[in-house]
UniProtKB/TrEMBL annotation:
The keyword Phosphoprotein appears for this protein: no
Any one GO CC term of the record: plasma membrane
Organism (species): Salana multivorans
Superkingdom in the source lineage: Bacteria
Name of this chain's protein: Iron complex transport system permease protein
Keywords: Cell membrane, Membrane, Transmembrane, Transmembrane helix, Transport
Amino acid sequence: MSAIADAVPGDAPTGLVDPGYRSVALRAGGLAGRWRLRALLVCAGLVVAAVTLAAVGLVVGDYPLTLPQVLAALTNDPDAGFARTVVVDWRLPRVLAGLVFGAALGAAGGAFQSLTRNPLASPDVIGFSTGSYTGALLVIIVIGGGYLQVAGGALVGGILTAGVVYLLAWRRGVQGFRLIIVGIAVAAVLASFNTWLMLTANQELALTAAVWGAGSLNGTTWDQAIVGGGLVLVLLAAGAALGPGLRQLELGDDAARATGTRAEPVRLTVMLIAVALTAVVTAAAGPIAFVALSAPQIARRLTRSPGIAVAPAACTGALLLVGADLVAQHALPTALPVGIVTVVAGGAYLVWLIIREVRHRA
């Protein structure tokens, strides 16, 4: 990625539109676009903060290490000894999974909130996470499969749920508010079904499903980090290619069609990618709530952008999940699954967001 030009308000070259804010043109491979300078700096700051928290996650723990010991382990220093096992085999997969999975949840939430133009729209609220949970539960309880089978069940469950919500919300197109209401209703039905599955399963399987359902990065292995992380990176790259179409949809379907954007195919493809991102994370770590809901709004306030930008949302999601996992591991009297920490923090955020929306509409 390389900067090829920059501009400030009032000095745009002749023939170009002055955007009214500092911007930087970037090109990566076959993709090119113009970024707000503030958004670019915020993303850089978020990445630095997330990497710093990740480094803290490698240092602290029941077997505390110093930063030089961590660097020696990462560089395969022969003097690293047991520190290499602690860092490379135990802590590094968890930290990388936190970064990549957090970015996936942030990007998925940003895509949904951009499509619906509603801050309450996220895979948690409109049922796609619950659908992934249902698919994984069926595999765990009925089939008793391993990680790959559970991952497949979560992916199929999320996509089927998205299809049902999309069809039920369809009325000469899909409007954001109707999509959210239908999604909440479908999520309630699926949550009841999930409870029935847990009550009818034998005790051992129900306990396994309950622990997994709390949403945790405990015991994350290299297989989960590599497979899940690889899928997330492929999906993020596919989503980046649809970025221009997504920005056109923010202007409304009529305006998007006027510029040559095929509104429904782009919307459906973006939804499928966002659902797949959520399903991959759910399959690897269980349902981790509220990161997808809060990350896009935090990013929008940091960047002061008029709409939702997916890239800052992804960076914010990575920071939130790595930070929440550190709190879950080390800041509480008892170590907890990270999903419980995000639920507690995200629940308070959701209440604040609903009160703010009600006051704004009053």
